[in-house]
Design a protein that fits this description.
Length: about 850
């Protein structure tokens, strides 16, 4: 009945605080009627609302927190009857009820043991029953917890706040924020109200503003954010059909549509919605930080104050914070604002809250003249290169608004969401995290970093590498154009500006090449070296690539990617060391390998069967082992599979005899067993023996030891014997999954590219398509239909888009005929659609 009434109100457009008040009033009325049915109409009893219900903020599926307050000497049978009369109807109706039955003294005893009950008691509200009893409880609570317990409460609320941030993220700008518990969410608003009540006796935001805890602008931002979050939480409960405070992907999209957000050419509707939400969370978070710093300083003044330490004539360290002595100094010298952040970076100390407020209040003074100031640029670079705690300085630089005031181009990416599972932070926070990651990488890659000629250029590239996002495709090109203007404004010399432009333009180059190209191809390595030009560019690009990947999220960085990136870096570095940029002659090494294998395998094996690229990819002992394994192959068991656990992935060695669609059948079998292929090296001997090495990882959190490798082997052999229908099995597997509407995607048309210049002997086919079940199987099966031989395969997924790269030959030659290429292209387009799944 209650939910039906609320849903009717919701459909009529009632939302926000008004809906919460109606919901609260509805429950109040029900409980008042129930208490009236008790004997003596509930004499000696009081029904008390706690927590959110006490604040009259009862969301659609929130718990209803009630306390039945009773006189100490009330008879047990009367109390039992009261519980049955008041609480049972709510339970019977299916409500989630948090309840307690206590005397006034019990309230004090229990609150001593439970910090959260103590906080909930601050929002206690009489619903029905004895007001005298309720006031008695309030007076006891004030005496015990407000008058004599302030410092203990402040310690507990500070500890609870820190623990909550650890559990729900130190940043509210997360992929799927919990809007109740995350930084900047409801709980931050509530802890400010509780703390103000305990510490200063202030019960509402207006009184907190009058007391100087908020400015009028901060109060307006706080109330606006709270109203917005209330609307979102109401919708979230209704959409979920349950108590839920986490904005999961699918909920984000539905709420964005319901609120009228639509996509533009460059940004999804859901990204506009999340940008707005993150802005409100960001505002609450800033106000919360300033509030608790103010409270801490006000209430923790020692009778033996620490001596202030002067940094210059108008800057000092006070209470372990950077403090501007004369706040009016900012009006005389706007450059001083950035100098403060340079000092924060140098000392590792945060900036005093009053100084941060003063910087924010004077942002209007950051004009074109100040942006072009060489002193301002010097201090900005010093703030970036701070070695103590980069996130403290840079987060404060962003949150005061100084970063966007100084670099207006940054404004567009502020709180900009990226609606994919790949990026765990908004663009602006990702860039800050990238600088922090760079600092930690420098310790690990010290020899590389110390060789860099202009390290400040690397820092600038790191903070600006994604500045072109949100303005269309090829954000790296757009970003390069933007940093050309920014760098000139900073006063960078021509050579440094060119390096900055190069780094931003090519910041994806190494990662893309490492994941999508054959790193054994000498011609390709030489091409990379020619594009990068010198070792200084390579060193900076390598460190930037690692920092960017680490800061993006766990989906962007793993041991497999790290190993490939390092291999590419070392090979390019080695090539750049040779001025003529020519590759070595491997024929002598291959001949030496043949001699070694002849000695180990005996004279009965014809080593001329083994191609050079195969010989140079394995050790003599490994190749001898492969030769020995051939005796286990027979007509009923055409393939041998050996799995090895490695850091971040598993390696599969598969030995078989060549047949049409071999790689397709391997990929299909692995997909059937929830194994995701990262890369494949295919080696075919002249006698038709195939030695494939595939790097895989489990789609789910399966341990290597628990993977059923025997069943994988059985299914692969059945597939090669044409006794297992992979197409049927994979289609059945897809249908068995629960059908759910997929997440919103950018419009992405599949793309197929041919390149005959990258490799000396192979045509390279690149397939770009939205990631989906068994896509690699579909593509490789389509290629097999043409009788094309796949020599190498590299697979990567980014932003829900899979990029499959195949090095192929047709009868030992490259594919050059345009009509034939177009036929293959159309077949691969079909393979990426649902049609081939049948």
């Amino acid at each position: 009945m209650r939910r039906t009434a609320l849903q009717n109100m919701w459909r009529k457009g009632l939302s926000g605080r008004e809906l919460l008040r109606h919901h609260t009033g509805f429950i109040d009325a029900c409980l008042t009627d129930c208490l009236a049915k008790c004997s003596d109409q509930g004499r000696g009893l009081a029904l008390v609302a706690l927590g959110g219900y006490g604040r009259s903020e009862l969301f659609p599926f929130s718990d209803i927190d009630i306390m039945l307050l009773h006189e100490p000497k009330l008879k047990k049978e009367i109390l039992a009857a009261a519980v049955e009369t008041t609480l049972y109807p709510l339970w019977d109706a299916g409500f989630e009820v948090g309840h307690g039955v206590r005397s006034p003294k019990d309230c004090i005893t229990d609150s001593k043991k439970d910090f959260f009950l103590q906080s909930a008691m601050l929002d206690a509200r009489l619903i029905a029953g004895s007001r005298d009893l309720f006031e008695e409880m309030n007076e006891l609570f004030r005496e015990k917890f407000i008058k004599g317990n302030r410092q203990k409460y402040l310690r507990e609320v500070t500890s609870s706040r820190s623990e909550r941030y650890k559990n729900y993220g130190l940043d509210g700008h997360l992929l799927e924020p919990n809007i109740k518990e995350c930084r900047g969410g409801f709980r931050d608003i509530q802890t400010m109200q509780w703390t103000a009540q305990i510490m200063f006796g202030l019960k509402n935001p207006d009184s907190m503003e009058q007391a100087g805890l908020f400015t009028s602008k901060e109060l307006l931002k706080l109330e606006t954010a709270q109203d917005y979050l209330i609307k979102i939480r109401n919708r979230l409960h209704y959409i979920s059909g349950r108590k839920n405070d986490t904005l999961y992907f699918e909920h984000q999209e539905e709420i964005a549509r319901a609120m009228g957000f639509t996509a533009s050419k460059n940004i999804l509707g859901v990204e506009y919605f999340m940008k707005e939400l993150y802005t409100h969370l960001h505002n609450v978070s800033i106000i919360n930080e300033l509030f608790f710093e103010h409270v801490d300083e006000t209430t923790n003044r020692s009778i033996f104050p620490r001596l202030n330490k002067a940094l210059d004539e108008n800057l000092e360290i006070r209470h372990d914070r950077i403090h501007l002595i004369d706040l009016k100094n900012l009006q005389k010298r706007p450059v001083k604002s950035m100098q403060i952040f340079a000092q924060s970076a140098k000392t590792g100390l945060p900036i005093h809250y009053r100084t941060r407020k003063a910087i924010y209040a004077n942002l209007g003074l950051i004009d074109e003249k100040t942006r072009s100031s060489r002193h301002m640029a010097k201090y900005f670079i010093e703030a970036l290169q701070g070695t103590v705690n980069p996130m403290t300085t840079l987060t404060s630089l962003l949150e005061t608004g100084l970063l966007t005031a100084y670099i207006p181009e940054f404004k567009h990416i502020e709180s900009l969401a990226q609606h994919d599972v790949y990026h765990t932070l908004t663009v602006d926070r990702h860039l800050l995290r990238s600088v922090a990651e760079l600092q930690s990488i420098i310790q690990e890659q010290e020899s590389i970093f110390t060789a860099i000629k202009h390290p400040h250029v690397l820092y600038l590239a790191t903070i600006f590498h994604d500045i072109g996002k949100g303005q269309g495709l090829d954000h790296e090109k757009r970003g390069a154009e933007m940093v050309k203007i920014i760098g000139a404004r900073l006063g960078l010399p021509k050579q440094e500006l060119e390096k900055l432009i190069f780094l931003v333009r090519h910041h994806l180059f190494l990662c893309h090449m490492a994941m999508r190209r054959d790193l054994e191809d000498e011609k390709f390595i030489i091409q990379c070296a020619e594009q990068i030009k010198d070792i200084d560019n390579l060193n900076m690009l390598y460190l930037l690539s690692i920092a960017d990947s680490r800061a993006t999220g766990p989906a962007a960085w793993n041991d497999w990617k790290a190993a490939l990136l390092q291999e590419l870096y070392l090979k390019i570095a080695n090539t750049l060391d040779h001025a003529d940029l020519t590759g070595p002659d491997h024929s002598k090494a291959a001949d030496w390998m043949r001699t070694q294998i002849t000695q180990k395998a005996g004279g009965n094996f014809n080593v001329e069967n083994l191609p050079d690229d195969y010989l140079l990819n394995f050790s003599p002992d490994e190749i001898t082992s492969h030769i020995d394994s051939l005796r286990y192959l027979n007509p009923e068991h055409p393939a041998l599979i050996k799995a090895t656990e490695k850091e971040g992935h598993w390696s599969l060695l598969i030995i078989s005899h060549d047949q049409t669609g071999l790689l397709s059948k391997i990929c299909g079998t692995l997909a059937l067993h929830n194994l995701d292929v990262l890369g494949a090296h295919i080696h075919t001997w002249q006698d038709g023996t195939v030695v494939d090495v595939l790097e895989v990882r489990p789609l789910f959190e399966t341990e290597f030891q628990t993977q059923d490798w025997q069943q994988v082997s059985r299914d692969l052999n059945l597939a090669l014997l044409n006794r297992l229908s992979l197409a049927h099995r994979l289609a059945a597997k897809r249908k068995s999954k629960k059908s759910e509407p997929g997440p919103e995607h950018r419009h992405s048309t599949p793309k197929v590219l041919f390149d005959n210049n990258i490799s000396e002997h192979c045509t390279v086919i690149e397939v770009y398509a939205r990631d989906q079940s068994a896509l690699l199987y579909n593509i490789t099966r389509s290629i097999a239909d043409f009788g094309i031989n796949i020599c190498r395969a590299m697979i990567s997924t980014r932003h829900e888009q899979m990029v499959d790269v195949f090095y192929v030959q047709d009868n030992g030659e490259k594919i050059t005929e345009k009509n034939y290429q177009e036929e293959i292209r159309q077949a691969l387009f079909f393979a990426t659609s649902s049609g081939i799944e049948n």
